Each structure stands twice: as structure tokens, then as C-alpha cells.
Design the sequence.
């Protein structure tokens, strides 16, 4: 395995992800616990992360001596490079300007990290983010790449198998960064690269068993992929010590609530309490038109219902959640210098504190596509695992204005037709999210010999990698007119269909 020593960079998880992509198991340990992790894991190699701190501060984090003197291959990234130089006899100085953002480095010499990738004399794009910089190298190191702002952009000590770089190879803005990390774990550390999601599953199952012991766990299902994957994994670890509670607000897409119930009860035989709370939710939403009020009401009611059910079940010490890594980091900003905001996001906000429960969050290290892979590994059907993301408040935020059961039924039908056509056209997986919106606007139409006066339906489809930014999906006109015709012909209550051409930013993906 590879041990990643975390000095507090907000992208340390990305290092772990890139190492996983290279087929090698990695664990992250905060620098304060790195010594213990090193002894427990006995890693083949070590990666030292970036940090908002400065090695020039008296209390800047340090590489533990046992790691520094271990003789294992090491890769220092940004602060990791600076701390290697600082602790091994080189020099680091505060830069007067720093370098933030895209930079080009020139390859000056050969190096194991560049094998099969970069050649001497070439220039390559990397992502820099540093104030301090290395100004003289520790004995045994040689520079192998430089940039105008960082003469020691990449350095190497082949004898000790220690390499370090000023830039961040783990972020996508360093296009070859994943390959550099792969060269480190494969060529420098000599690891086989045969680790898979199947191994992750085993490791997590052991961890869950260790954390939970013989105590009971409750998991709130939202109907989405993340909470379902978390629940199936936890059930595999602790069996019927887990009870799932599915709070059904009646604002899911067509057939999805049923799918969750049959999957859990039928396929996996996981104890599931299915609470049909649709009347409670829809009654409470009567007269509510403000989007924030809708969201708040739904969030609060979800917690109330869940808490009631949890009390009925009784005796659970743990609450399981499908929190993903992007929920853990709120913003990834390289330009903001040392002050970073990191916020833990609770899908059922405030509940663990209120009920005095501990959290089990086995997906905290994963990104959406990795959760899908894990879901497939656990045998969840493709059609379920590959589902587009769906917001917690459900269709309520796709019905601007007042929500009602009738409107939700109309929207569900239009949405199902739209998604069916997208699947038939083979486009579902190329789209991040596609959905219909039912507008609180009526327009005049003519059908057969009669006049109609019905609602407008808007269609939205976007591509995205993380939901933070999005582009519209450019359907061809024939596709859109086919969908529009079907919706107007088949869904009573809709007589006009429009397509939303707004990217994010400036729009958001959802309409509310
Ligand atoms: P926006 O509309 O902010 O959405 O561009 C970005 C992504 O987040 C989803 N979304 C939510 N997910 N609870 C959720 O669990 C919410 O309240 C919520 N609001 C938006 C949205 O579907 C998109 O994938």
C-alpha cells in the first residue's frame, strides 16, 4: 500500500483517488497520526501532501522522523516537497509573489517519474499553488524540471528514491498528473497495480465491523444511489444489525420508490421500514411557493419522520449516511491561499447531534463514479446504479410555485416519457442529469378541433463532471420534437414543451 501523509491540503483525497486509479491501495493519515499509520500499514511508498501551512512557521507540520528515515520511496507534493528540503538540509524561502494557477514546466533531465511520458526539452502544463519555494536542494537531489517561477519544479534523488514537485499532480489541471503518480507507485515503488474496488469493499467491511461492533445501525434511504450503496455495503458487514428507513415524500420520479423497496426487501433481504409520508409532505407544501421555504420544510419534515421511525426501532447507536467526498469538501479553490473552507455536509442535517448518534459514512472517500463502481461490485443493478442524480427535495423543486399531488403526477408522466426517449436514443449515460419541469404558466393551444389551455413543461439536460458547473446537452431538433409531441399527446394537462438552454453558471441545474 501507499501511505498518504496529509498536511491539510484540500485536495489530498484526489491523491488517494489517483493512486487508486493506478491500481494501488492507499490510506490517508493526518500528519499527526502518520507515525502510527506508518507502523500499522508498513507501506511500500509514501506521498506527502500539500498544505495551507508554511514550513517556515515554527509550528508548521513536519514529516515524522520514522518516515523520513525509513528508506522507503517518497513523493513530496508542494508543501511535501518543501518539508522534504527543509528537513533534509535544503532551503525554503517565502516567495514574494507566489505562483497560482496554470504554469508550464520544462523538462531538464530524465527521471523515473517521466518514464514513457515526458522527454527532455519538452514543456508541459501543470497546476501550481504556492507562496514559499525551494531555493536550494538538499544533498543528493538534482533538478529535473523547472518553470520560470520554480527552478526546482521537479527534483529527484534516485539513490534514496525520493522525488518531489512544486506543482499539484493530483488535480485535473495537471493533465499528465495521474500518470506521474502512476509512475511513482508502479515504477518507483514497484507495485503491481492490481488493487480493485473489490478490495475496497473488503477493507471497508472490516472497518465497519470494527467501528460498529455488536451495536445497531439505522440508515436513512433517500431513494438515491449513494444511500443505497452505503446501506448494501453496511448490511454486508453487519447483517441485520442494520435497519433501513425509507422516508417516501411522494415526490420521487416514476417507479423509483417501488424500485428501492423491491431492491432492498426482495433482492437483498435488508430490513426496511417504508414510510409513505406523501400526505404529510404534500399537505405541508400547500400554499408554499418560495423555493427556500419548500426546501426547509422538506428537510425538516424528513428529519421529523425519520426520527419518529428511529425511535420506534429504538436502541441504535449509529446513523449511516451515504456522504460522498464532494459533500465533505465544500469548495476546492487553489487561488484563495491558506484560508480554506471545509464543511462537513450532513444529508440529514443536525440529526446525529439531536439524536446523539455516531455516524457511519463508508463512502466518504469516494467520488460519484467510484460509488457507482462500488454499487456494481455489490451487485446493484446497472439501471439503479447508473441513475442520474436526484435532489433530496425531489419534484417539489421542479414545480415552481405551489406543489400538489396532481401536479406531481403530471410531471412524473412527462419526466418518464422524456427519460424513456433519452434511453431509447442511447443518450442516458452521456448526460449528467435530464429532467422535466412543470411551469406554473398556462398557455393556449389547439388540439383536434378544440382550444386547450394547459401548462407548459420545460425540459432540461446537462453534462457535468461534478454538478458544480454544467453545459446544456445539445439534442438534435428531431429528438426534441419527438419528445415534445409525445408529452403533449400523452400527458393530460400539458400542451406546450420548451427546452432550457441555460448553462451553469449562470443558471443552476435545478430550477429552484
Ligand atoms: P444546482 O441546482 O445547485 O444543483 O445547480 C447541483 C446538483 O445538486 C443537486 N441538488 C440537490 N441535491 N439536495 C440534494 O441532495 C438538494 O437540496 C439539492 N439541490 C440541488 C442537483 O440535482 C444537481 O445534481
Sequence:
Amino acid at each position: 500500500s501507499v501511505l498518504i501523509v496529509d498536511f491539510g491540503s484540500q485536495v489530498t483525497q484526489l491523491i488517494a483517488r489517483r493512486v487508486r486509479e493506478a491500481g494501488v491501495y492507499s490510506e490517508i493519515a493526518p500528519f499527526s497520526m502518520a507515525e502510527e499509520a506508518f507502523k500499522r500499514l508498513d507501506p511500500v511508498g509514501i506521498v506527502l501532501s500539500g498544505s495551507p501551512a508554511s514550513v517556515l512557521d515554527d509550528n508548521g507540520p513536519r514529516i515524522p522522523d520514522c518516515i523520513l528515515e525509513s528508506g522507503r520511496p517518497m513523493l513530496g507534493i508542494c508543501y511535501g516537497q518543501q518539508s522534504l528540503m527543509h528537513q533534509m538540509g535544503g532551503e525554503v524561502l517565502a516567495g514574494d509573489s507566489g505562483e497560482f494557477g496554470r504554469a508550464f514546466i520544462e523538462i531538464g533531465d530524465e527521471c523515473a517519474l517521466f518514464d514513457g511520458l515526458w522527454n527532455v526539452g519538452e514543456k508541459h502544463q501543470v497546476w501550481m499553488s504556492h507562496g514559499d519555494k525551494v531555493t536550494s536542494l538538499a544533498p543528493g537531489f538534482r533538478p529535473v524540471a523547472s518553470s520560470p517561477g520554480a527552478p526546482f519544479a521537479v527534483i529527484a534523488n534516485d539513490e534514496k528514491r525520493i522525488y518531489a514537485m512544486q506543482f499539484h499532480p493530483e488535480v485535473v489541471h495537471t493533465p499528465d498528473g495521474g500518470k506521474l503518480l502512476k509512475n511513482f507507485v508502479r515504477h518507483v515503488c514497484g507495485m503491481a497495480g492490481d488493487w480493485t474496488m473489490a478490495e475496497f469493499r473488503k477493507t471497508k467491511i472490516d472497518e465497519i465491523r470494527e467501528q460498529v461492533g455488536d451495536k445497531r445501525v439505522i440508515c436513512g434511504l433517500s431513494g438515491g444511489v449513494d444511500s443505497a450503496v452505503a446501506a448494501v455495503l453496511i448490511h454486508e458487514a453487519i447483517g441485520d444489525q442494520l435497519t433501513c428507513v425509507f422516508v417516501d415524500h411522494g415526490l420521487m420520479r416514476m417507479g423509483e420508490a417501488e424500485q428501492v423497496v423491491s431492491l432492498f426487501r426482495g433482492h437483498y433481504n435488508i430490513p426496511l421500514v417504508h414510510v409513505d409520508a406523501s400526505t404529510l409532505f404534500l399537505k405541508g407544501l400547500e400554499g408554499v411557493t418560495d423555493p427556500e421555504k419548500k426546501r426547509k420544510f422538506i428537510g425538516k419534515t424528513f428529519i421529523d419522520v425519520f426520527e419518529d421511525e428511529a425511535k420506534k426501532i429504538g436502541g441504535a447507536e449509529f446513523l449511516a449516511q451515504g456522504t460522498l467526498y464532494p459533500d465533505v469538501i465544500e469548495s476546492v479553490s487553489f487561488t484563495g491561499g491558506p484560508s480554506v473552507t471545509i464543511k462537513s455536509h450532513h444529508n440529514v442535517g443536525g440529526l446525529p447531534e439531536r439524536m446523539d448518534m455516531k455516524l457511519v459514512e463508508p463512502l466518504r472517500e469516494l467520488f460519484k463514479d467510484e460509488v457507482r463502481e462500488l454499487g456494481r461490485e455489490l451487485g446493484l443493478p446497472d439501471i439503479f446504479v447508473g441513475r442520474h442524480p436526484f435532489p433530496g427535495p425531489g419534484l417539489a423543486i421542479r414545480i415552481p410555485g405551489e406543489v400538489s399531488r396532481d401536479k406531481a403526477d403530471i410531471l412524473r408522466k412527462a419526466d418518464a416519457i422524456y427519460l424513456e426517449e433519452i434511453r431509447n436514443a442511447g443518450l442516458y449515460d452521456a448526460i449528467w442529469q435530464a429532467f422535466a419541469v412543470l411551469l406554473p404558466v398556462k398557455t393556449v393551444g389547439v388540439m383536434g378541433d378544440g382550444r386547450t389551455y394547459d401548462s407548459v413543461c420545460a425540459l432540461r439536460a446537462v453534462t457535468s463532471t461534478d454538478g458544480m458547473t454544467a453545459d446544456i446537452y445539445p439534442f438534435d431538433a428531431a429528438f426534441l420534437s419527438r419528445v415534445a409531441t409525445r408529452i403533449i399527446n400523452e400527458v393530460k394537462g400539458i400542451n406546450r414543451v420548451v427546452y432550457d438552454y441555460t448553462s451553469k453558471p449562470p443558471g443552476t441545474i435545478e430550477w429552484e
